[in-house]
Specification:
Elements (H helix, E strand, L loop, with lengths): L10 H4 L13 H12 L21 H4 L7 H16 L7 E2 L3 E5 L1 H6 L1 H17 L5 E4 L9 E5 L6 H9 L3 E5 L18 H4 L12 E3 L2 E4 L24 H4 L8 E2 L4 E8 L2 E8 L7 E6 L4 E6 L6 E5 L2 E7 L2 E6 L2
Parallel strand pairs: 2-3, 2-4, 4-5, 5-7
Antiparallel strand pairs: 1-9, 6-7, 8-11, 9-10, 10-15, 11-14, 12-13, 12-15
Length: 331
């Protein structure tokens, strides 16, 4: 250890032995990191704020004692982003009101981690990429009243879990043919729970999606060798699903004309909030069209602009979108 701030970080993130000026995140990353937290209803933070000053910005040993956020361009970006955040009608209490949930199953994370976790990452990446708001649902809690619950590669289920999922009133999107094939102690059942619920055996599972009432089935992502496509020792990888086939099975409260824009639905201070966030490194100003929003009045917040009242409806045109937008619904 070099005994200075940031020495514990990965060398490819924080190797100050190099003399290049681009070895740290630039000021454009300030708004992306901080506005992501606001979009998701979390607390703002900056993991890079404790990094040491790169050698290329130092003129003396005293400069090396400074932190990276003390660079003038970083300080200016922080002030600008925080000034915008202060105008947003969020907090202190925030509730996620997305109609879609993604199940984080405790026993599967403990005893079938890579399979379940990779599937979770793949689902969440797809939802964020396509602007579909969702919330995390933990299996140890009571299941909330949602329109849909996505159950990604959950192979371990107790009898209590099965009863809870059977009683869930909304739609269940079950990904993987081995749903509940094992109990919570990883003891094998004769077949998956789908054999009883949808007449889908894990031994002869169909390769195409299936529907049965409020249940949707989507097959596992398997390679030609029969192994789960995401399985690689020591790494987490996104399953190679056919997302074009999976996406239509997901409940979408609205659609966005462009991909790559994440969306959340929150409730705070008595108002429903719709937030949009671009993850692009340096996003360009663009016009978005949102289809399916409820008709009514809303207040639109955009960085660098004063809040203004707008009318939402079946087709809402959002000009001047770059990094972030917030719609505070008035009804």
């Amino acid at each position: 250890s070099k005994g200075v701030a940031g020495a514990w970080k990965r060398h490819d993130f924080d190797d100050t032995s190099r003399k290049k000026a681009n070895i740290m995140p630039d000021s454009c990353e300030v708004e992306r990191i901080m506005l992501e937290a606001m979009t998701c209803g979390g607390a703002t933070g900056a993991f890079w704020s404790i990094r040491e000053m790169p050698d290329c910005f130092c003129t003396s040993g005293q400069d090396k004692l400074k932190m990276y956020f003390e660079l003038p361009e970083m300080t200016a970006a922080l002030k600008e982003t925080l000034s915008y955040i202060e105008t947003l009608p969020i907090g202190p209490e925030v509730e996620n009101t997305a109609p879609v949930g993604v199940l984080y199953h405790r026993e599967s994370l403990q005893y079938d981690f890579q399979r379940h976790q990779e599937a979770i990452f793949g689902v969440e990446e797809m939802l964020a990429e396509n602007g579909i708001p969702y919330q995390v649902v933990f299996s140890e809690n009571e299941l909330p009243a949602l329109e849909q619950l996505i159950v990604p590669e959950v192979r371990l289920l107790s009898e209590q879990d099965i009863a809870k999922l059977r009683a869930f009133p909304g739609r269940l999107l079950i990904i993987g043919s081995e749903f509940g094939r094992y109990d919570e102690k990883r003891h094998s059942r004769l077949d998956s729970v789908l054999a009883e619920w949808m007449n889908i055996s894990c031994y002869t599972a169909p390769a195409l999606p299936q529907k049965c009432g409020r249940l949707d089935y989507f097959p596992s992502a398997e390679g030609s060798d029969g192994e789960f496509s995401g399985m690689m020792s020591g790494t987490l990888n996104r399953p190679r699903w056919d997302r074009a086939a999976l996406l239509p099975l997901v409940v979408r409260p609205f659609t966005i004309s462009r991909t790559g824009i994440a969306a959340t639905l929150l409730q705070s201070r008595g108002h429903n909030l719709l937030q949009l966030l671009s993850y692009a490194a340096n996003p360009a100003v663009q016009t978005l069209i949102l289809h399916g929003l409820p008709a009514g009045k809303a207040v639109l917040y955009l960085p660098g602009q004063a809040p203004r009242e707008v009318e939402t409806g079946a087709e809402f045109v959002l000009p001047d979108f770059r990094r972030h937008a917030l719609l505070q619904m008035q009804s």
